[in-house]
Write a structure and sequence with these properties.
The complex is a heterodimer. Chain A is α+β, with helices and mostly antiparallel strands. Chain A is built from 6 helices and 19 strands. Chain A has 2 domains: about 110 residues, 3-layer Sandwich (Rieske Iron-sulfur Protein); about 200 residues, Naphthalene 1,2-dioxygenase Alpha Subunit, Chain A, domain 1. Chain B has 1 helix and 1 strand, in the order H-E. The chains are: A alpha+beta, B mainly alpha. Chain A: It comes from Actinomadura montaniterrae.
Chain lengths: ~400, ~50
Amino acid sequence: MVQAQQPQASPPSQPKRRRPGQDWKAWPQYDAAELGLRGYWYPVTWSSKVTGTPQRQTLCGEKLVLIRDGGEVYALADRCPHRGVPLSLGRQEFPGTLTCAYHGWTFDLESGKLCAVLTDGPKSPICGKVVQKTHPVEERHGIVWVYLGDGEEPHPLDEQLPEEWRDGSFVLGGSMQDRRGDWRYACENGFDEGHAKYLHRTSLWRLFRTMPTWNITSIERQGRWIHRVQKEVHFRDEHSGLGVWTNYRWWKKKPPERVFNIGNVGDLGKPVHPVIGRQEFPGYTSISVPGVLRVVYPDFIHYEWWVPTEPGHHRYVGIMIQYREGLSTLPFYLKYFGGIRWFFHGQFSQQDEWMVGETDAPPERLYRPDASLTAWRKLVEETTTTHEAARAAKARRQDYDV
Amino acid sequence: MTSKGKGTASKPAKGIFAAAAVMTAVVLVRWLGRRSNTQVHRVVLPPTKDA
């Protein structure tokens, strides 16, 4: 006799534990910021590059047209509301205005108002009824900064520039490069504690400097910046059953067997410039919103801005400054054009570009040094919540037609 | 009149070569700078009230 088997009752289902790293849901605002964080000033181009000829730029997914008129730089949405033609294809027919190349719609640069339509006569009824979106622009330190918002009054640019830029005159060298890769990957790479020791060990910029093999660091917040503070530095390790791993080479400078928090390997003992010393940076690498890295050396400071442009692309703005005045700035010109531009803002940084362009996360499986990455994401989350609330409460500077 | 040895140049000629080399270097650096979207410039802060 065959008895029909009763289906066995399945054990009560256990709630499936979600494996960490499958997504960025722990950082929802960061996750949603593929096109960047709004309500911030971004470096867009060099001041000397903006002339009376309209030029197109992309910032946080928005197409902008930049033009210089009467010495001032203006930024407008680069889409004529009439038929969607880029205004950057147009020209200036009258001072203080920009005219679309297609039907001659002419916009006031300051207010964005449609002030003339050349193909509809001087009394065109549509004049004054269309407002083109404009963006606040400031020129500072030879760079054009654009505030990417939604019509609200911007905060002062100074609140966003590194505090030490107000503490002394300096000479600035920089390079702007359009790059492949999500701006968030670029930020994470910049503040990432782990990669430099392996990825950059072959860079020409570090040809004579031994990179450590691993560090113990902590993250400390100072104002709007978070710093990587080194607690331990290691240079030679025995990996059980595998062998020894080290970046020591006979031609490389022997690193100091001490923990250092200003400058990089081999900078110990170098006098720290008074302006840099005054800042009391807890660590030599720090990052702030909306994506600015600062690396402090005894006598110069390196910055990187990662400016969101289009999905999967960003603009790298690498800047090196040295606190010098007058003729003593001249060696920096030689140093920058002779070495820094090609070895640091060039080959070294292009190793980062390579990896940022290839990164594909989430999913991801993070390891101990990635505490720097998660600290950065947490900073964006915390900052964005308060920043968005403040932005919503701001007065409006413009109501424009979409 | 004796001719100059091979590889020698008069002082004015050397000066012209040196000036040409410097000018070429300057033009090359400026061209490379423009091409690579690179700049170097001074940032002079206005004197503070305390100074």
